[in-house]
């Protein structure tokens, strides 16, 4: 985290607003979504206004949709600390992609905060925030009020307590929950409190402290040596949680904030699970004993002062939430439905429940949340929940954006108050395919499968053409040879072709780093998100006014139809060292074959997945697992990836025929199952209309503006040696030879071959 903070140009604490719009980056030609972050506080750098515009890759502009695999996202309403750097055209981007976010975790029992760089999670948001401030030389601690500040304050000081984060353990017959506390005024040093909690005797029995059925542990507030924590029976159905400390300032006291923090943790044994009532904060006893510590010089008298007001909130029922084990294996993005059966899923008529699901876009490090949205939940009653297995799950509170559902433990929380009756079930997801919502003639078609198909501009015979970027400078930087790189890329496409029949066709090499929408290029280059190993930039055409295929679109639309024609570019991070080989091990490098195999999966419509083992544990075995480590290899497609690819192929063929509304050709199918790695290459670009075969001829020391190049950024020898770097609008070379020029026009980054004659 230190490195990200030191390298970011601007660090702000703030909130993402809901409104967004899309623009096209004038340098790269890519679509970007623009979010507005309202600034609460600037921690590093400076901003002209109280808000900044932050660009994330992908979005919808007019009738074109572009997405970037592994791309960073922001979501409206999200609060946090944002690390920003200037965007290439205007505004800012998240520094290091998702590594530019430090946010709270709302749906995690064990952690409060996360830095998205290496998915580091923290027990305390406050401690993480203070750590950020310390790194930046900004004091973000909550300081104790001075005597003068306290004397000048005339507003009431309120101390509030609530119950939260209940965790039932059916096996051990216990319920663990947190007692949280906050002050209405920041800076008061907490001294003591007595909290009376009502509880259901039907579940817990009478006088549970005397029966040694309850344990009390310290929380963040009471963790220091100044505090003692104890519980006792107040009556047969009440316990009293007592927190004490000296009032003479002899021990350091915790300085309260205005957000809830953990006061203590209680663990209670359960006699019997059942629908017998709720545990709740009732009120404070004996004149509401909750006090803060006076500054030592306050009115000349050390000691403690009672809070002016006290409040208690939060209750949760203890219910025997139970869910049957699942034996099936499911698929995401094709309108599969998952039926969860059990009991006590529904406690209130308003149905505020949700389901917490592992997030496949970060290997399950955080959770997605399925609320009772009709896109995700088809039915939610007391004994049954029916889930639509979409890849469109909005995850505004945690990982942002839309993500597919994943394998792992799914937790049902059947009331919005965060109930003690949560229960878990292990779900196995084989593959996840990309889908999108589409509205045509005011009719909303949910979860349309994104098909992959050739377009006339790609190939007139249904082949899916792709090119390999063989720019010497990038190959040299990545540490691979041209022939090895071409061979490995072809082999990865062949692996998918043999598995699915989609006829991928290697056309040749190019020095263009990113093509137009009509071509697919694989090569090394800078990332839209600098921290990523690779990205697939996918472009799609919207269906416009087309009628989606199906038996009756108005009433029962076909659940699997084509909404887009798709092509895209695969870019491997030039900043990494790569291994290009079909045998052997990559050692300290990233494996080209493994990563390209993964990115081709994205190209044709696969989303991320998490594997599973027989005992329900996570596995990173699937080719579409979100990340690969240095030295790690996956060189085969598992059965699930092949099945998903075949479904994409089949639906793409069906969408391309008959009365399909998308102007695409039917995919060519390789029926033999054989695919050849040719290992041939050309030093010339196949895009004849974009540059001459001979290149641009100049004389030694001739200053000459290059047509179509607004800015010359870098010039390389054909050996990869950098001979110029800057921001010029002309070329001036003193030695004859052949060079590669990297430049920028008004549309995109481009490459030109320059021949300097004697």
Could you please describe the fold and organization of this structure?
- The chain is mainly beta and 758 residues long.
- It folds into five domains: 2-123, OB fold (Dihydrolipoamide Acetyltransferase, E2P) (Beta Barrel), CATH 2.40.50; 147-313, Immunoglobulin-like, CATH 2.60.40.680; 323-428, Immunoglobulin-like (Sandwich); 437-656, 3-Layer(aba) Sandwich (Collagenase (Catalytic Domain)), CATH 3.40.390.10; 696-757, no CATH class.
- The strands form twelve sheets. The protein has a seven-stranded mixed sheet. Strands 13, 15, 16, 18, 19, 20 and 22 form a seven-stranded antiparallel sheet that branches.
- The longest helix is centred in the middle third of the chain and has 19 residues, at 482-500.
- It is globular and about 95 Å long.
- Mean pLDDT is 81; it is low at 396-400, 416-420, 545-560 and 682-694.
Low-confidence stretches: 396-400, 416-420, 545-560, 682-694
The overall pLDDT, averaged over residues, is 81
The count of strands amounts to 50
CATH class annotation of the largest domain: Alpha Beta
Alpha carbon gap, first and last residue: 52 Å
Radius of gyration: 30 Å
Helix vs. strand class: mainly beta
Largest sheet: 7 strands, mixed
CATH architecture call of the largest domain: 3-Layer(aba) Sandwich
- By CATH, the superfamily of the largest domain comes out as Collagenase (Catalytic Domain)
Q: Helix tally?
A: 8
């Amino acid at each position: 985290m230190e490195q990200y903070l030191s390298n970011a140009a601007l660090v702000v604490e703030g909130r993402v607003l809901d409104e967004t719009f899309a623009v096209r980056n004038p340098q790269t030609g890519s679509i970007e979504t623009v979010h507005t972050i309202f600034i609460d506080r600037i921690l590093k750098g400076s901003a002209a206004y109280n808000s900044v515009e932050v660009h994330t890759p992908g979005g919808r502009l007019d009738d074109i949709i572009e997405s970037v695999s592994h791309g960073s996202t922001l979501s409206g309403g999200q609060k946090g600390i944002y690390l920003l750097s200037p965007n290439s055209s205007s505004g800012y981007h998240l520094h290091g992609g998702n590594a530019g976010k430090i946010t709270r975790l709302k749906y995690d029992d064990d952690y409060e905060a996360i830095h998205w760089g290496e998915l580091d999670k923290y027990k305390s948001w406050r401690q993480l925030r203070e750590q950020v401030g310390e790194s930046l030389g900004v004091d973000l601690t909550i300081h104790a009020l001075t005597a003068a500040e306290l004397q000048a304050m005339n507003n009431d000081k309120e101390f509030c307590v609530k119950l939260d984060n209940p965790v039932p353990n059916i096996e051990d017959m216990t319920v663990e929950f947190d007692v949280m506390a906050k002050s209405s005024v920041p800076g008061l040093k907490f001294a003591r409190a007595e909290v009376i909690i009502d509880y259901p005797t039907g579940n817990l029995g009478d006088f549970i402290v005397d029966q040694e059925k309850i344990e009390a542990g310290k929380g963040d507030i009471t963790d220091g040596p100044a505090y003692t924590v104890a519980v006792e029976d107040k009556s047969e159905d009440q316990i009293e949680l007592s927190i004490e400390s000296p009032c003479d300032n002899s021990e350091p006291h915790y300085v309260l904030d205005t957000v809830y923090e953990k006061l203590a943790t209680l663990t209670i044994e359960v006699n019997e699970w059942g629908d017998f009532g709720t545990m709740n904060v009732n009120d404070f006893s004996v004149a509401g004993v909750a006090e803060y510590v006076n500054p030592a010089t306050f009115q000349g008298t050390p000691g403690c002062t009672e809070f002016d007001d006290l409040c208690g909130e939060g209750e949760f029922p203890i219910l025997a939430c139970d869910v049957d084990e699942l034996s099936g294996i499911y698929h995401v993005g094709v309108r599969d439905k998952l039926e969860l059966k059990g009991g006590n899923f529904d406690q209130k008529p308003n149905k505020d429940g949700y389901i917490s699901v592992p997030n496949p876009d970060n290997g399950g490090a955080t959770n997605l949340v399925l609320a009772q949205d009709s896109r995700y939940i088809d039915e939610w009653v007391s004994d049954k929940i029916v889930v639509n297995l979409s890849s469109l799950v909005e995850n505004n509170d945690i990982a942002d954006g839309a993500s597919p559902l994943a394998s792992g433990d799914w937790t049902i929380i059947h009331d919005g108050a965060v109930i003690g009756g949560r229960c878990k079930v292990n779900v196995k997801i084989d593959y996840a395919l990309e889908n999108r919502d589409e509205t045509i003639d005011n009719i909303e078609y949910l979860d349309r499968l994104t098909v992959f198909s050739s377009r006339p501009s790609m190939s007139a015979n249904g082949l899916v053409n792709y090119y390999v970027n063989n720019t010497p400078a990038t190959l040299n930087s990545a540490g691979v040879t041209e022939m090895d790189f071409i061979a490995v890329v072809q082999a990865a496409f062949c692996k998918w072709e043999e598995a699915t029949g989609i006829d991928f066709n290697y056309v040749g090499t190019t020095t263009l780093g990113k093509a137009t929408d009509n071509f697919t290029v694989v090569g090394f280059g800078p990332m839209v998100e600098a921290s990523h190993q690779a990205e697939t930039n996918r472009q799609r055409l919207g269906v416009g006014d087309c009628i989606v295929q199906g038996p009756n679109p108005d009433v029962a639309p076909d659940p699997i139809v084509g909404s887009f024609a798709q092509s895209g570019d695969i870019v491997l991070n030039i900043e990494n060292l790569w291994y290009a080989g079909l045998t052997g091990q990559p050692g300290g490098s990233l494996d080209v074959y493994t990563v390209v195999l993964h990115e081709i999966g994205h190209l044709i419509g696969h989303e991320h997945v998490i594997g599973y083992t027989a005992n329900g544990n996570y596995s990173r075995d699937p080719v579409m697992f979100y990340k690969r480590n240095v030295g790690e290899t996956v060189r085969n497609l598992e059965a699930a990836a092949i099945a998903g690819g075949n479904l994409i192929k089949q639906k793409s063929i069906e969408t391309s025929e008959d009365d399909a509304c998308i102007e695409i050709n039917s995919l060519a199918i390789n029926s033999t199952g054989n695919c050849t790695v040719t290992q041939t290459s050309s030093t010339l670009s196949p895009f004849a209309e974009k540059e001459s075969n001979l290149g641009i001829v100049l004389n030694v020391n001739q200053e000459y503006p290059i047509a179509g190049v607004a800015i010359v950024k870098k010039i390389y020898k054909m050996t990869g040696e950098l001979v110029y770097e800057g921001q010029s609008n002309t070329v001036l070379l003193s030695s004859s030879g052949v060079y590669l020029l990297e430049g920028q026009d008004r549309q995109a980054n481009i490459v030109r071959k320059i021949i300097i004659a004697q």
